[in-house]
Design goal:
The protein has 13 helices and 22 strands. It has helices at 29-38, 57-64, 83-89, 100-108, 114-121, 134-138, 140-151, 177-189, 223-234, 262-272, 316-319, 336-346, 388-402; strands at residues 15-20, 42-47, 68-69, 92-98, 126-130, 155-156, 160-163, 169-173, 198-204, 208-209, 215-216, 238-244, 255-259, 278-281, 288-290, 310-312, 325-332, 351-356, 368-369, 371-375, 380-382, 386-387. The chain has an 8-stranded mixed β-sheet, with helices on both faces. The chain has a 6-stranded parallel β-sheet with strand order 3-2-1-4-5-6, sandwiched between helices. Strands 7-8 form a two-stranded antiparallel ribbon. It is elongated, with a radius of gyration of 25 Å.
Length: 404
């Protein structure tokens, strides 16, 4: 016996506007409409004309038990007389699949169909799930349009890699229904409790040059810092991200400063924290740097051995001045809590976030983390293994408490 989809309960009695556009993945919207309805949502579907060529409105109507809007001048629709009413009724808008054409129209503010009108008129969170040929997705125009939408606060769900309609493999597939629903739930539960706050986040690992080719560095990917920056932005903060050598997609809606070395990071942070409320020092700053980097590449044949004279790098979180809240991060391999508390005291931090990098799922270049949060009053909170975005939300919850 197949059990009905229940979800987390966040969708119950919520009005979800489902926009379906004319991509081949439109058939998957039927499963999404069904699962949203099973979870207790009132699903109001808006289909573009092209979408009706891919899947019939009747299919969606039978799954949602609600009329489907296909024409902004359709007299039979309860929303036809005032399309603003549908925009105002929405708790969230999800467009799945979103074609390159629809993404372009939304980025330009074009409202020549009902879906465009709803998106332009709504104050509800808008989630967009692009699905298209991989070349179309990678096209600079499409990427520029997606970046514009991110900057306006739209949530973009990255398409997945797999077999496309053309038969080739590439990035362009519509994500699975569970992933889309999870993003809708995040949008519905998103807090705006950091509005008016200025938050500086550092991310990635600094690299200290030995010569123009070689450097001293570390294994930090920047994922934790980027998760913090995006979470803070989504909660309404004005965010500045100081990023060192991270090969990650740039998040929209924030100022980003790229740096390489500890000295460059210190200069960037010192400039960014003016009038800031919080510094989240998630970057892994190298502890040492060569005293005198070579001007040219050191040739292998010229050295049978090499001795480097190292000096300490700047202690950024301690040395940068200001009346902001200071949150440090401690990546440890032993005596996690004891070492984290030493760092908290020695650097004059308000809070420290510590993780054991030897634990599975809690080390470098992974999407999860297991951390312990300790504040200067000695309060300790051990979090279970969770995604870095979830860890970021927990950290920001504690930071919010420090404002009091």
């Amino acid at each position: 016996m197949i059990k009905a989809y229940k979800g987390t309960g966040m969708l119950k009695d919520k009005t979800i506007v489902l926009g379906i556009t004319g991509g081949i993945a439109a058939y998957k919207a039927a499963d999404l409409a069904s699962k949203l309805t099973q979870a207790g949502a009132r699903v109001e579907t808006v289909m573009t004309e092209a979408a009706t060529k891919m899947i019939t409105p009747l299919t969606i109507r039978n799954l949602t038990h609600r009329p489907v809007v296909t024409d902004m001048f359709e007299t039979a629709s309860e929303w036809s007389e005032e399309h603003i009413a549908l925009a105002e009724a929405a708790d969230a808008v999800i467009i799945a699949p979103a074609t390159a054409n629809t993404i372009s129209k939304l980025a330009a503010g074009i409202a020549d169909n009902m879906l465009g009108c709803v998106v332009l008129a709504t104050k509800a969170p808008v989630v967009i799930a692009p699905a298209m040929n991989d070349v179309m997705y990678k096209n600079p125009v499409t990427q520029e349009n997606l970046e514009k939408l991110r900057d306006r606060g739209f949530k973009i769900i990255e398409p997945e890699y797999g077999r496309l309609a053309s038969g080739k493999m590439g990035k362009g597939r519509l994500p699975e229904t569970a992933k889309i629903i999870s993003e809708i739930e995040k949008a519905l539960g998103q807090k705006k409790d950091l509005e008016g706050k200025r938050i500086v986040v550092t991310a990635g690992g600094t690299r200290e040059p030995i010569d123009p080719v070689r450097h001293i560095g570390n294994r930090s990917s920047g994922k934790m810092g980027y998760a913090l920056a995006e979470a803070a932005k989504d909660r309404g903060a004005e965010v500045a991200l100081v990023s060192a050598n991270a090969s990650l997609p740039e998040p929209g809606g924030m100022k980003i400063v790229k740096v390489r070395t500890a000295a460059e990071m210190k200069k960037a942070v010192a400039g960014a924290v003016k009038n800031a409320d919080v510094l989240l020092m998630a970057a892994a700053v190298a502890d040492y740097m060569p005293k005198t980097p070579a001007r040219g590449k050191i040739k292998k044949e010229s050295r049978r051995g090499m001795t480097l004279k190292l000096v300490r790098t700047p202690d950024i979180i301690s040395e940068v001045k200001g009346g902001f809240i200071r949150v440090g991060f401690a990546a440890e391999s032993e005596d996690l809590i004891a070492n984290a508390k030493k760092k908290l005291t020695a650097k004059g931090l308000d809070m420290v976030v510590a993780n054991d990098v030897t634990e599975p799922g809690s080390g470098f270049d992974v999407d999860t983390n297991r951390v312990v949060i300790i504040d200067k009053k000695g309060r300790t909170e051990e979090l279970p293994l969770m995604s870095k975005r979830e860890v970021a939300e927990k950290i920001l919850d504690r930071v919010k408490g420090l404002f009091k």
